[in-house]
Amino acid sequence: MGISVNHISKSYKNVKALQDISFDVKPSELFGLIGPDGAGKTTLFRVLTTLLIANEGTATVAGFDVVTDYKKIRSNVGYMPGKFSLYQDLTVEENLHFFATIFGTTIEENYDLIKDIYVQIEPFKNRRAGKLSGGMKQKLALCCALIHKPKVLFLDEPTTGVDPVSRKEFWEMLKRLQQKDITILVSTPYMDEAALCDRIALIQEGQILEIDTPEAIVKHYPKQIYNVRANNMYQLIKSLNDYEYNHSVYPFGEFIHYTDKRKDFNPDQLLVFLKSNQLSNIEITETVATIEDTFMELAK
Ligand SMILES: Nc1ncnc2c1ncn2[C@@H]1O[C@H](COP(=O)(O)OP(=O)(O)OP(=O)(O)O)[C@@H](O)[C@H]1O
Q: Where is the ABC transporter domain positioned along the sequence (predicted)?
């Protein structure tokens, strides 16, 4: 009852939005699609929710084929699109009633599934959806996507534009839904959220770079990464890019992440080079790879 994607390709005229994508999502798995804007995440969601037909390949969702069984898929999946999908002029309660009605159900029938989430927005049930905060809109959209008790839930960048506290709460809700036997495919551009998934697919320019558990993905990182910092970060990044032995250089929070081409790299050599570039207060320390580092390496 999961998802199976086999060699799916989709183009918009000359833009190859998806190129030969294959992966499986196991029943009750929380699977993440991680990639930057334009990677093809929305296109894949639209194919899997039967809103778009792929040029090549096949896919099944909850055991149903996305082309021949599209009607069955529509009643068995919940879809929370990236852009706010609710009716802005309807109230919280009216939106929920509306979605329940079009799926031939009632709020009462499946209240158990949404209760934990709905109680948080219930105090605002008479407020128009357009007047809710980002976090509350997102909770309402999730309730609407769940109201017909779907077997598979598709969430396209559900936390984009949402504050950090609401983002954390949202992921806790997803973990609880997973325990209710709902398979979840979620996309996000946030690498910290990737670590919360059971497995992830890193996707860029319509292609999958790697699929594995977040732990395994970072373990495969091939090099030692260094956090580098100095008095002038702009000059530092320029100097590191000029250093002939650099393998990769990119800003990472308050540091620059640096890897070296050489197997026997000694940070003291880099220190000498940076000092000769008029940099001071230089710090070079070893650090461990994150999912973002892996993504940067694979996307090179
Ligand atoms: N209707 C369309 N017509 C033409 N090109 C499109 C269309 N929709 C998407 N694209 C292009 O296809 C590629 C994949 O877009 P898609 O929206 O699937 O990516 P995404 O990962 O969801 O990114 P975003 O978060 O920006 O939506 C991009 O290059 C995009 O410009």
A: 3-230
